[in-house]
Write a structure and sequence with these properties.
five-stranded mixed beta sheet, six-stranded mixed beta sheet, mainly beta
């Protein structure tokens, strides 16, 4: 018997053996236990993401004049029952926080979830028509989005003319901030608290004291005493409170959280709270 015939016989024997083993395995497992790819009713691969709208977090593109971070897309239109999935793709700490207004960002009870690292996800499925705004608390000054659900015109009737005549100005826009510096020179360390403002002459939340004069080398500690989510974010300008964070950008997410920073160089260091950037800010005058 030549070598070619011998090799062919061996090949056929191996193939037969493999067929027997496959049939035996299938019989042992049973038809329901054999692993197969998911298929739909047409015999095609199934899609687990069907009916899901995905929104990612990503770094903004300077060429497109985008801010530091964005939700992409930041405006979507869906039907009731559609699931919205937010995915962290930049590895930066974000939140997806529902709000009733993008002008006066404050958390509502609809949802508030954290996407703390790359790959984190959060899903929400609205059942009713309407408009749902949301934002990222650490980057509230610029990172926001809107979801339109169903027939928005029918779900949200136009504002009554009588209501339009009412004064809807946010008290925080008119409240004057006391920018007089408190002299705390001579101290090795100082403490600045976050607290709710006095309803009569202060905005909703404040740093206390917000404006402080200290010596170079002083350790500054910010402490959350009101239990509300805040950030301590450095900025180059007290008038332009967005972005920043070159010196520090820390979250004080709950009561008792604290953050320390050593003021090593002389000069003025402004800072603010991202979720409440319109009125919650301060500065360190370092001598």
């Amino acid at each position: 018997m030549d070598r070619e015939r011998l090799s062919r016989r061996r090949l056929l024997a191996v193939a037969a053996t493999g067929s027997v083993l496959s049939a035996t395995l299938a019989g042992c497992l049973g038809e329901d236990d054999v692993e197969t790819d998911d298929v739909d009713e047409n015999g095609e691969d199934g899609d687990d993401d069907e009916g899901i709208v995905e929104i990612i977090t990503r770094a903004g593109e300077e060429d497109e004049d985008e801010p530091n971070f964005v939700f992409d897309p930041d405006h979507v239109e869906i039907e009731p029952g559609t699931t919205v999935r937010w995915v962290n793709t930049d590895g930066v700490f974000h939140t997806v926080t529902a709000t009733d207004s993008l002008e006066e960002k404050s958390p509502s009870e609809v949802f508030s979830e954290t996407l703390s690292s790359d790959g984190d996800e959060f899903e929400w499925t609205p059942e009713d028509e309407g408009v749902q705004h949301y934002y990222c608390e650490p980057h509230a000054g610029f990172m926001e989005g809107t979801i339109e659900i169903g027939d928005v015109d029918a779900a949200e009737p136009e504002k009554n003319e009588d209501d339009a005549d009412e004064d809807t100005t946010d008290v925080n826009d008119d409240t004057e901030i006391d920018e007089e510096f408190v002299d705390m020179t001579g101290e090795d360390s100082i403490q600045i608290e976050t607290r709710k403002g006095d309803a009569e002459d202060e905005p909703n939340f404040v740093f206390d004291p917000a404006f402080v004069r200290i010596d170079a080398g002083t350790t500054v500690e910010w402490v959350n005493t009101d239990g509300v989510f805040h950030t301590v974010t450095s900025t180059d300008s007290i008038d332009t409170r967005s972005g920043g964070g070159d010196e520090f950008d820390e979250t004080l997410s709950s009561e008792g959280d604290s953050f320390e920073w050593d003021a090593d160089e002389t000069g003025t260091q402004p800072y603010y709270c991202s979720p409440h950037a319109g009125f919650m800010y301060g500065a360190l005058e370092i001598e």
